[in-house]
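ok trying this again, last paste got cut off
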Amino acid sequence: MDIREIQDLIKFVAKSGVSEVSLETDDFKLTVKTEINKAGKETIVYQVPAEVHAPAPVAVAAAPAATAPAPKVEAPSNTITIKSPMIGTFYRSPGPDKALFVNVGDEIAPGKVICIIEAMKLFNEIESDVKGRIVKILVDDATPVEYDQPLFLVEPA
């Protein structure tokens, strides 16, 4: 099951009114629960343990049932867009009092950590897979991001 199928399942649960859905395969177990909080608003809780046979865990973050889609970003033709590999909260530094991973104008290379995306209390370091210079940072610190949402524009070296 890939991230798109998980997102489709989450949307189905949010729209259907079902209170809980569990899905289990040989590789993973996924549980999606819908709860009503004290304010009477619906929240969705996701539980995704690490995959047994995969080299890296798959994680899905809790998000409100009705979120606006990420804005489309028009990238100049001479830039590469680095996109979010997962749903979560975007952080530009390893901690509130720590230095930022990258700023506009910084040179990056494959393997350099450029941000963190928090998903289900797991802080996932996102590494660059391109060499170049950061031209624009498209997401504010500590904001939610969606899968495949543009994060950075990079001028290739």
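PB: full thing came through this time. The chain has two domains: 1-65, 80-156.
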